[in-house]
Structure formats: structure tokens, C-alpha cells
Amino acid sequence: MTGSPEAWVREALELQRRDLVPEAIAAYQRVLARWPGLAECWYNLAVLQRRALRLDDALSSYQRALDAGVSRPEEVHLNRSVIYTDHLRQHAAAERELQLALSLNPAYTPALLNLGNLYEDLGRREAAAQIYAAILARDPRCYEALARCANVVVGAPDPQLLARLRAALAMPTASAAERASLGFALGRLLDAGGDYAAAFAAYCAANDASRAAAAPSGVRYDRDRHHAFIDRIIATGTPPATARVTPEARPRPIFICGMFRSGSTLAEQLIARCPGVVAGGELDVIPRLVTGELKPYPESLATLTGGRLETIAAHYRSALRHVAPDATYVIDKRPDNFLYLGLVKRLFPNARIVHTTRDPLDNCLSVFFLHLDQRMSYALDLLDTGHYYVEYRRLMAHWRTQFGADIFDLDYDALVRDPAPVLERLGAFLGLDWGARAPEPAATDRAVKTASVWQVREPLYRRSSGRARHYAEQLRPLASYLAAALPPQSAG
């Protein structure tokens, strides 16, 4: 290449555009070795390193971008805060980065929204509400802030807030994504106020808007394709583990899986009350592996050598150490890891798996009422959610034939009805000692990054158990489908 950086940068940009992450990282590193003052290249390198989960490198490259005078430095601080909060669980550092972004640009709405969200994760409801109110005072048409403001409301809904949400939903300037956020917030308030018919209609409209927001790139749930995927997992079987087992290596993983909205956050917070156990949240390491270097999955399992398994296990443990370097156990509560238990047990043959379960109708309804990532397209339609639920139950029945002794079925409804005996059995299964008194979930000192951020901070309650009874008419088609598709004792 020539002695000027333009051609070198074009090559790196093209590799980045083609989503060739390792190659693009190497290209940017070649550029910056010769021209270290190119701030935007440091920024692009940091973006790629974050995608590759090279988190320390990404933080360093973002700092080099700042040092070199990158344009929009507030965006760099925002991105650094995301690494600290989402990956490293260093919430004080994340808050510091957001405050730095706001010191550069006090009106930077993405940083304000993220700061409010961080305060929600930390249980600081009033601080979060103040942030959202400040955004709305400056920009009344920031619909995302309005939706989040509604989501931190406690108690009966304020009629003025309901009217404001409805007015925003009627605005032609509201995007599909904004209508989705507003609609889910409206549904939540109407449900809390006991207006169940209106709540259900709001949630249906919110899911429609969420689907529209994903178009045209969004993929609708394909029942036949997902059924075939579960067939392939079952047919592949689980080859015997060939990785060298090192049970003394720490941190050790505890896996919590099941359907979303089945009580996994509550289970995690209770288990994390035991000394030496840290809540890791919904880690994405295994799903990233499956959709990346282990494609096509599950067929790739058959070709994994012992050495490759050990490398993957070491990478996974490194991710756990990022969360809690001194912990004995770190909990991975990514619910849809139930799809990958064959891989989990090859990587960690001694792993214990807590499988959270819940009444099928309650579970499917709660998924439909949750603003999930549109890539989980089954959640946008109740009968699609029912189909996904049936396939999940079919796969879990298969895993029990493979690893039954290492799977604990944690029934959410039994837990909230009579927690002591359930927790006693769970502690014995995990080999953990809670001491003389069973734990309480009020985790005000811990960050919680799920839709259950507020519920899990309350004492155990039964309000969500049997929730489907309020929507019996709307759920009639789903109830009929589940009754026909599930064994009689499981249909709910």
C-alpha cells in the first residue's frame, strides 16, 4: 500500500462492513501501528473489540480515541459505560462514564436514558424517575423517556399519566419502536389498575408495533423450522464429555434456565444470597458461541475435540471472572440456555442446572406482556409463544433422560406458596448452605438487569401466580392449544 493512511483505512472499513471481525481488528491495528493519532480508527477498533468480547482492549482503545481527540467524545463515554455495566458489572464505573458524557453534553439523551436505566437496575427508583422527568421537561416528545417514567410508577395508575401515554400513542410522529415502548408501558399500568380487557388490547397493539419496528429485517417465528431445530438437537444426542474435568477451577458456573418469565431472576437472587455465590445475570457467552464459531449447531458438537472443549470452557470461565473474580460460584441465568444443555454438559460435566418452571398459561401470558428483543419473535404472538413453550417442554423432557440427576425443577408457584421446603431442597441439590434461615429476595444492594427488576426486590408474593385467570376469555385459544399439545398434568 501507499505511504498514506487512506487505503489502509478503506481496507479496514471494508472488512468491518463485511462483518469480518477478527480481520477488521487486525487491519485497524496495522493502521494504528503506523498512524496512532487517528482517533476514529481507535473508536472503530474499540467497537470491534467489544463485539469480540475483548473488553479490556476495547476500554483501552476507547480511551486512546478520547486521547486523540475523537469527535463526539460523549458517545465514547456512553459506550464505555455499557461495557462496565453489561459485561463487567462495575456499576460505579459505568455511572462515572455516564456523568463524564453528560459533563460534555448535558442534553445528551442516550446518556440520560442509560443513567436512568442504571438507577433502575440498582433499585434507585426515585433517582430514575427524576432522570426521566428531566428528559421530558426538555423534550416532551421523548416517548422512550415517557414509557420508562410510566414503568417506574408504583401503585394505582395516575389518570393523567394514562392520558399522556394514550396521547403519545396517537401521535403520527411516534415511530413503531416508540409505540411499542409506550404500549407495553400502558398495558402494565392498565393491568395494575385491574382494567384487564384494555390492558390486553394495549399489549396486543404493543406487540404489533414491536413486529413493525423489526421489519423488514425482522424474521417472523417459523413453527416448522423451530420444531425441526429441536428435532435436530434431540437426534444429535450428547456425545460423552472429553474435556479434562477440573472441578476445583473457579469460579464454577451454576446454570438457571427455562422459559423467560418463569422465575429465573427470583431464583438467581435467592441463590446469590449464599456466601461465595455471585449473580452473573443473563450471560450471552453460550448463545454467542452457538451462533458464531459453533455453527452449524447442534451438528458441530460431534466434531469438538477435548482440546477445543477445554479452550471454550476456559473462555467461559474467563467471562465469569470478569463478573466476579473471587467468587466460588457465578450464576448464569440466561433462560434460553435450555436449548444448549448438551453443550453445557460437555463443557462442564459436573454442572448443576436449575430449571425454573411455572404454570403454562401464566408463563406464556407473561412472555407476551414483556417487551422482548424482536429476535425472540415467538413472543409477539400468543399462539407462537404457546408453540415455543410446547417445544421447550419437549426438549426439557429429553434433557432429563440425559442429565436428570443434575437438573432441579424449581416450581415458581410452589416457591411463592411455601418457600421453605423448596429452598431446602434447592440448597441440598446445589450443595450450598444458607444457614439457619432461608434467604429473602430483597436484593436492594445488587444490580438486577431483567424485567423483574422491581418485583424481585419485594418480599415473596403470589400476585403473579394465577395471573392468567384475569384473561381467561382472551387466553381461550391458547388454553385449548396447550391442553391438546401438553400432557394432561402439564396443560395448566
Give a description of the structure.
With 492 residues, this protein is mainly alpha-helical. The chain has a domain at 246-490: Rossmann fold (3-Layer(aba) Sandwich). It is built from 22 helices and five strands. The longest helix is centred in the C-terminal third of the chain and has 22 residues, at 382-403.
Give the name of the CATH superfamily of the domain at 246-490.
P-loop containing nucleotide triphosphate hydrolases
Report the count of strand segments.
5
N-to-C CA distance: 67 Å
- Helix proportion range: 55-70%
Order of helices and strands: HHHHHHHHHHHHHEHEHHEHEHHEHHH
Strand content: 5-15%
Q: Mind describing the biggest β-sheet?
A: 5 strands, parallel
Mean pLDDT: 91
Structural class: mainly alpha
CATH architecture of the domain at 246-490: 3-Layer(aba) Sandwich
Poorly predicted segments: none
